[in-house]
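Lab notebook, bench 4. The sequencing result for the construct came back, and we need a structural model before the next group meeting so we can plan mutations. Quick request posted to the team channel:

Model the 3D structure of this chain.
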Amino acid sequence: MRTLILACIAATVAASIRAQPLPPEPVRLDSLGAFRPAGPNWQLASELAGDPRREKTLTAVAGTGMLVCNPGKEKETRTHLVTTWEHGDLELDLEFLLTPGSNSGVYLQGRYEVQLFDSWGVKEPKAADCGGIYSRWDSARGKGKEAFDGIAPRANASRAPGLWQKLRVEFQAPRFDAAGKKTRNARFTRVVLNGFTIHENVEATGPTRSGLAENEVPIGPLMIQGDHGSVALRAIRVKRFDRDATIGVSDLRYKLYSGNYPTVGSYDSEKPKAEGVPARFAHGAVEKTGRFALVFTGTLEVPRAGAYRFAGEGLGVTRLLIDGRTVVQPLERGSQPGIITLAAGKHPFRADFVQTSNFRPNFELIAEGPGIAPHALTVREQAESAFAGRGRGRGGAARSIAVEPTDRILLQRGFVPFEPRKRLYAASVGTPAGVHYAYDFETGAILRAWRGPFINAADMWDGRGNDQLARPEGPALTLSGKPAVALIENAATGDWPDQSDPLWSPQGYKLEADGQPVFLSKLAAVAISDRVAPAKDGRGLTRTLNFKGPLPSWSAWVLLAEADTITPQAAGGWVVGAREWFLDWPADSAHRPVLRTVNGRQQLAVLLTAAALEKTLSYSIVW
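Done. Here's the predicted structure in token form:
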């Protein structure tokens, strides 16, 4: 039994390793060697001091690992940062921090800008707001019409000044023919800001304003704007891809087995229903009905040595063997991606696709390698892919049933997606102020908060609504999800529970005249009311807790925040995590928070005492 358990653990670890994407290349920030000589406005730092939430100039702490820009008034102190290396197609990840009113930008190939701007609180973002593809400029168009072809982000996903923000850009460089004529515009295939996709498949018709040059080229450097406002950068990582580099497929053959097969390979001893040379590498190239197993064999032609990642996508079960080694592992439904090191040259492969449901079959193999962008080895067939992906309808278009609180507060009951498990007794609350949150009745926890669009109820109301998920439509801040109030036997070492206490019981909610909910619960004999509403300025959430009744014998605590680090703010309150969000605390509060460190994590909590029990406990979540 012990051997079996260890084998299962090893298999799980191996599968987890195989599932990891190919790692990007970090841009080292122990020196400025990755960049062309820059002015004194750029410096290395290890951390930020001061109060970047309120101060317009960043205070750098000596060290490395971070770039800090403070533009001065003189020309030599208002320089851009330009890499010594150049790129064509690129995947870029970085973290940035802005001060109030600050303005910067990331220029792909030094020519196409993704705007970095303090757009906190903007309800209808434009191309000049954070995450926008900045406008092009032509003075010949006439006064007031010079700017054109800018692309606003899908929603305002920006965070408050003084917080670290995450940007991911997937970029395809423009294409040119042998004569140097442009045949395809530069394209932002995906831009993600703070975990929310703000652009998909949008074109840049030409260089945006204030780039390095107005011409377009196959490759160019990455540029960070440094002349408009203070900005800090860290965790810069890139994947640079060779133009049109792919893995070749040749010597293709197939075998088709008809039947319902419980496991991959269980048909190997049978005579195939059909076999031969397919017209193309696609399941649609083989005539078939019902449930089946389809085996493709052939040769992969790998252009260079290195680590390659392969993934099966679509409905059904997929397995991929290369050189006789299993790379893509079959699962009960779907498959587990894998990474394999290959030498340059030819490698025999076998790909099994087992149709296990009554849905239309959909089989795709995606590959990525050193300097080779992710691409499909199989031929994509739109007609066959119509049902690919949960949450999509005919034609592959994402389903959407938008619920929007335009004139009143809405409370929508429904399952809330949350890792590691969805919350079954929960509600999503949307407000006309555009600030929303999800609340868990079982724990009294605020699960997440977001701005912009409210929820997509397609999983709840379309068809049978099997998932019943109320999915947030706007960019969200995810919180710990642990019980809001808990009994802790040992205040010094007792960890916060993941589940609510047996003495905890939800008591439903009451609605105020405008639909504002107040959630009710009890912990032993203590009655709790919990009101969560947009802050007065509309830029955060204010939580107000009231308690009434005798305290239990064990210590009762209220959890305000949990993170690896929680740091006091200069103006009161705390910075949670590595500048992930702010917790603002009223100076006149009768309650006194305590910062506990348990199992390497910090917990900001309030001990309920008899003296302060009937005093209102209030604080704000700002992000």
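The chain has two helices and 47 strands.
Will bring this to the meeting.
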